[in-house]
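> example.struct
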Protein backbone atom coordinates (compact mmCIF):
# COMPACT_ATOMS: atom_id res chain seq x y z
CA UNK A 1 0.00 0.00 0.00
CA UNK A 2 1.32 3.47 -0.87
CA UNK A 3 1.94 5.98 1.91
CA UNK A 4 -0.49 8.56 0.60
CA UNK A 5 -3.48 7.26 -1.39
CA UNK A 6 -5.66 9.89 -3.05
CA UNK A 7 -9.41 10.03 -3.73
CA UNK A 8 -8.65 9.60 -7.43
CA UNK A 9 -6.19 6.75 -6.87
CA UNK A 10 -7.16 4.56 -3.89
CA UNK A 11 -5.09 1.75 -2.45
CA UNK A 12 -6.66 -1.72 -2.52
CA UNK A 13 -5.40 -4.14 0.10
CA UNK A 14 -6.40 -7.64 1.30
CA UNK A 15 -8.31 -7.87 4.57
CA UNK A 16 -8.87 -11.34 5.98
CA UNK A 17 -9.52 -14.40 3.87
CA UNK A 18 -12.48 -12.95 1.96
CA UNK A 19 -12.15 -9.19 2.17
CA UNK A 20 -10.64 -6.18 0.42
CA UNK A 21 -10.15 -2.66 1.72
CA UNK A 22 -10.32 0.24 -0.73
CA UNK A 23 -8.55 3.11 1.04
CA UNK A 24 -8.96 6.64 -0.33
CA UNK A 25 -6.79 8.35 2.28
CA UNK A 26 -4.73 7.61 5.38
CA UNK A 27 -6.55 10.41 7.23
CA UNK A 28 -10.04 11.84 7.32
CA UNK A 29 -10.71 14.70 4.95
CA UNK A 30 -13.79 15.87 3.08
CA UNK A 31 -12.68 14.81 -0.41
CA UNK A 32 -11.70 11.32 0.74
CA UNK A 33 -14.99 10.80 2.56
CA UNK A 34 -16.99 11.98 -0.44
CA UNK A 35 -15.05 9.49 -2.55
CA UNK A 36 -15.81 6.72 -0.05
CA UNK A 37 -19.54 7.49 -0.15
CA UNK A 38 -19.69 7.74 -3.92
CA UNK A 39 -17.66 4.58 -4.50
CA UNK A 40 -19.69 2.59 -1.94
CA UNK A 41 -22.99 3.68 -3.48
CA UNK A 42 -21.76 2.62 -6.88
CA UNK A 43 -20.77 -0.80 -5.56
CA UNK A 44 -24.12 -1.23 -3.81
CA UNK A 45 -26.14 -0.32 -6.91
CA UNK A 46 -23.95 -2.34 -9.30
CA UNK A 47 -21.85 -4.84 -7.30
CA UNK A 48 -18.99 -6.64 -9.04
CA UNK A 49 -19.40 -10.38 -9.43
CA UNK A 50 -18.85 -12.23 -6.18
CA UNK A 51 -19.25 -9.26 -3.82
CA UNK A 52 -21.58 -10.11 -0.93
CA UNK A 53 -21.11 -7.13 1.40
CA UNK A 54 -20.11 -3.47 1.11
CA UNK A 55 -19.47 -1.26 4.15
CA UNK A 56 -18.12 2.29 4.19
CA UNK A 57 -15.97 3.89 6.89
CA UNK A 58 -14.50 7.38 7.26
CA UNK A 59 -11.85 7.04 4.55
CA UNK A 60 -12.20 3.52 3.17
CA UNK A 61 -14.65 0.96 1.79
CA UNK A 62 -14.67 -2.68 2.89
CA UNK A 63 -15.85 -5.44 0.56
CA UNK A 64 -16.48 -9.06 1.46
CA UNK A 65 -16.52 -11.48 -1.46
CA UNK A 66 -17.21 -15.14 -2.16
CA UNK A 67 -13.89 -16.81 -3.10
CA UNK A 68 -15.83 -19.58 -4.83
CA UNK A 69 -17.20 -17.00 -7.29
CA UNK A 70 -14.33 -14.57 -7.79
CA UNK A 71 -10.65 -14.58 -6.87
CA UNK A 72 -9.06 -11.79 -4.88
CA UNK A 73 -6.87 -10.88 -7.86
CA UNK A 74 -9.84 -10.71 -10.25
CA UNK A 75 -11.85 -8.55 -7.86
CA UNK A 76 -8.89 -6.27 -7.23
CA UNK A 77 -8.51 -5.65 -10.96
CA UNK A 78 -12.25 -4.96 -11.30
CA UNK A 79 -12.11 -2.44 -8.45
CA UNK A 80 -9.03 -0.75 -9.92
CA UNK A 81 -10.82 -0.39 -13.24
CA UNK A 82 -13.92 1.02 -11.58
CA UNK A 83 -11.94 3.45 -9.42
CA UNK A 84 -10.32 4.86 -12.56
CA UNK A 85 -13.63 5.67 -14.27
CA UNK A 86 -14.29 8.98 -12.50
CA UNK A 87 -13.40 11.31 -9.65
CA UNK A 88 -15.43 9.73 -6.88
CA UNK A 89 -15.04 12.77 -4.62
CA UNK A 90 -17.22 14.80 -7.00
CA UNK A 91 -20.88 14.44 -5.96
CA UNK A 92 -23.17 12.82 -8.52
CA UNK A 93 -26.68 14.04 -9.22
CA UNK A 94 -29.31 12.16 -7.27
CA UNK A 95 -31.53 12.18 -4.23
CA UNK A 96 -30.26 14.03 -1.17
CA UNK A 97 -31.66 13.38 2.32
CA UNK A 98 -31.65 16.31 4.74
CA UNK A 99 -32.64 15.88 8.38
CA UNK A 100 -33.71 18.83 10.55
CA UNK A 101 -33.26 17.86 14.20
CA UNK A 102 -34.48 19.97 17.17
CA UNK A 103 -31.71 20.31 19.74
CA UNK A 104 -31.49 21.86 23.21
CA UNK A 105 -28.09 23.38 24.00
CA UNK A 106 -26.34 24.16 27.26
CA UNK A 107 -27.45 23.77 30.86
CA UNK A 108 -28.35 20.23 31.88
CA UNK A 109 -28.80 19.38 28.19
CA UNK A 110 -25.27 20.44 27.25
CA UNK A 111 -23.16 20.71 30.39
CA UNK A 112 -19.86 21.11 28.50
CA UNK A 113 -21.04 23.85 26.15
CA UNK A 114 -19.42 26.61 28.21
CA UNK A 115 -15.93 25.09 28.08
CA UNK A 116 -16.39 24.30 24.40
CA UNK A 117 -17.30 27.90 23.67
CA UNK A 118 -14.27 29.07 25.66
CA UNK A 119 -11.99 26.90 23.50
CA UNK A 120 -13.51 28.58 20.45
CA UNK A 121 -13.12 32.07 21.92
CA UNK A 122 -16.88 32.57 21.71
CA UNK A 123 -19.83 33.06 24.01
CA UNK A 124 -22.18 30.10 24.42
CA UNK A 125 -24.73 31.85 22.22
CA UNK A 126 -22.16 32.45 19.50
CA UNK A 127 -20.95 28.85 19.62
CA UNK A 128 -24.50 27.51 19.22
CA UNK A 129 -25.23 29.92 16.38
CA UNK A 130 -22.02 28.89 14.63
CA UNK A 131 -22.70 25.18 15.05
CA UNK A 132 -26.28 25.24 13.77
CA UNK A 133 -25.23 27.42 10.82
CA UNK A 134 -23.16 24.53 9.42
CA UNK A 135 -25.02 21.40 8.26
CA UNK A 136 -22.96 18.23 8.61
CA UNK A 137 -22.83 15.01 6.63
CA UNK A 138 -23.05 11.46 7.95
CA UNK A 139 -19.44 10.45 7.32
CA UNK A 140 -19.88 6.90 8.58
CA UNK A 141 -22.03 4.74 10.82
CA UNK A 142 -20.12 2.90 13.51
CA UNK A 143 -18.89 2.22 17.05
CA UNK A 144 -22.45 1.45 18.18
CA UNK A 145 -25.54 0.38 16.19
CA UNK A 146 -26.76 3.23 13.99
CA UNK A 147 -24.42 5.78 15.53
CA UNK A 148 -23.35 8.50 13.09
CA UNK A 149 -20.04 10.29 12.81
CA UNK A 150 -20.87 13.74 11.42
CA UNK A 151 -18.73 16.41 9.80
CA UNK A 152 -16.86 18.31 8.84
CA UNK A 153 -17.24 21.47 10.90
CA UNK A 154 -15.05 24.51 10.12
CA UNK A 155 -11.40 24.41 11.16
CA UNK A 156 -12.07 26.45 14.31
CA UNK A 157 -13.98 23.44 15.64
CA UNK A 158 -10.84 21.29 15.60
CA UNK A 159 -10.92 21.09 19.38
CA UNK A 160 -9.32 18.17 21.24
CA UNK A 161 -11.09 15.45 23.12
CA UNK A 162 -11.23 15.69 26.89
CA UNK A 163 -8.23 14.50 28.90
CA UNK A 164 -10.55 12.50 31.16
CA UNK A 165 -13.50 10.32 30.22
CA UNK A 166 -16.99 11.45 31.19
CA UNK A 167 -18.46 8.31 32.81
CA UNK A 168 -21.84 8.48 31.07
CA UNK A 169 -23.50 10.63 28.44
CA UNK A 170 -27.20 9.98 27.72
CA UNK A 171 -28.51 8.45 24.52
CA UNK A 172 -29.32 11.01 21.80
CA UNK A 173 -26.79 13.48 23.23
CA UNK A 174 -24.93 15.72 20.79
CA UNK A 175 -21.17 15.74 21.38
CA UNK A 176 -18.28 17.42 19.58
CA UNK A 177 -14.52 17.00 19.01
CA UNK A 178 -11.99 17.26 16.17
CA UNK A 179 -14.42 18.98 13.76
CA UNK A 180 -16.96 16.18 14.14
CA UNK A 181 -20.25 15.63 15.92
CA UNK A 182 -21.89 12.46 17.18
CA UNK A 183 -25.47 11.75 18.23
CA UNK A 184 -25.14 8.84 20.63
CA UNK A 185 -27.35 5.81 20.06
CA UNK A 186 -27.06 4.69 23.71
CA UNK A 187 -25.84 5.89 27.09
CA UNK A 188 -22.06 5.73 26.94
CA UNK A 189 -18.81 7.02 28.42
CA UNK A 190 -16.92 9.41 26.17
CA UNK A 191 -14.08 11.86 25.83
CA UNK A 192 -16.10 14.10 23.51
CA UNK A 193 -17.74 17.26 24.85
CA UNK A 194 -21.48 17.15 25.54
CA UNK A 195 -22.92 20.40 24.12
CA UNK A 196 -26.55 19.57 23.38
CA UNK A 197 -29.35 17.06 23.59
CA UNK A 198 -31.69 15.71 20.95
CA UNK A 199 -34.58 13.26 21.26
CA UNK A 200 -33.58 11.63 17.96
CA UNK A 201 -32.73 7.93 18.30
CA UNK A 202 -30.18 6.75 15.69
CA UNK A 203 -30.94 3.13 16.60
CA UNK A 204 -34.54 1.88 16.85
CA UNK A 205 -34.50 -1.83 17.52
CA UNK A 206 -38.29 -2.06 17.38
CA UNK A 207 -38.48 -0.58 13.87
CA UNK A 208 -38.49 -2.31 10.50
CA UNK A 209 -35.76 0.20 9.60
CA UNK A 210 -33.66 0.31 12.80
CA UNK A 211 -31.02 2.65 11.33
CA UNK A 212 -32.80 5.82 10.15
CA UNK A 213 -29.57 7.53 9.05
CA UNK A 214 -27.46 6.59 6.05
CA UNK A 215 -23.91 7.59 5.14
CA UNK A 216 -24.16 10.76 3.07
CA UNK A 217 -27.30 12.09 4.79
CA UNK A 218 -27.08 15.76 5.77
CA UNK A 219 -28.08 16.85 9.28
CA UNK A 220 -29.19 20.33 10.28
CA UNK A 221 -29.34 20.85 14.05
CA UNK A 222 -31.96 23.43 14.99
CA UNK A 223 -31.75 25.13 18.39
CA UNK A 224 -34.91 25.02 20.51
CA UNK A 225 -35.60 26.24 24.03
CA UNK A 226 -35.36 23.82 26.93
CA UNK A 227 -39.11 24.04 27.45
CA UNK A 228 -39.79 23.28 23.79
CA UNK A 229 -37.37 20.35 23.94
CA UNK A 230 -39.19 18.93 26.96
CA UNK A 231 -42.46 19.11 25.02
CA UNK A 232 -40.89 17.38 22.00
CA UNK A 233 -39.43 14.61 24.12
CA UNK A 234 -42.65 14.08 26.09
CA UNK A 235 -44.71 13.68 22.92
CA UNK A 236 -42.19 11.55 20.99
CA UNK A 237 -43.51 8.05 20.34
CA UNK A 238 -41.28 6.71 17.57
CA UNK A 239 -37.77 7.95 18.32
CA UNK A 240 -37.84 10.66 15.66
CA UNK A 241 -37.49 13.34 18.33
CA UNK A 242 -39.37 15.87 16.25
CA UNK A 243 -36.91 15.49 13.37
CA UNK A 244 -38.08 16.29 9.86
CA UNK A 245 -36.69 14.49 6.80
CA UNK A 246 -36.53 16.48 3.57
CA UNK A 247 -35.75 14.52 0.40
CA UNK A 248 -34.24 16.69 -2.33
CA UNK A 249 -34.12 15.52 -5.96
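> example.seq
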Amino acid sequence: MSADPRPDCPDIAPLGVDGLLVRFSTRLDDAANRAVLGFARGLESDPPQGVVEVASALSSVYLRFDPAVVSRAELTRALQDRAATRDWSTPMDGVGRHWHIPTAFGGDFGPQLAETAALLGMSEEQAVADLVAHPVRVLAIGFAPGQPYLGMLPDRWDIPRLKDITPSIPASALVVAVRQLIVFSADTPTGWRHVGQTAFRPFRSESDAPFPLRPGDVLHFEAVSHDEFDRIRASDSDGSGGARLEVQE
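> remarks
The longest strand covers residues 96-105.
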